Amino acid sequence: MEFRVTNMSCGHCKMTIEQALKDLGVSSFSVDLATKTVRVESDEASEEAVKNAVRAKGYDIA
Fold first, then answer.
1. 27 belongs to a structural domain
2. Residue 42 sits in which domain range?
């Protein structure tokens, strides 16, 4: 799955999102600050669970 996080703007934002994904049990992901794109490959978590984890940290998903 792939989605944009519109209000991710700095390294701290990137680290917060990475930690939220790790806490959810997702092990294969990439967070690209330049394009504000998050890519996740996961059998452990649904797309909705991943997006909810990111939203819970205060980020907006496009």
1. yes
2. 2-56
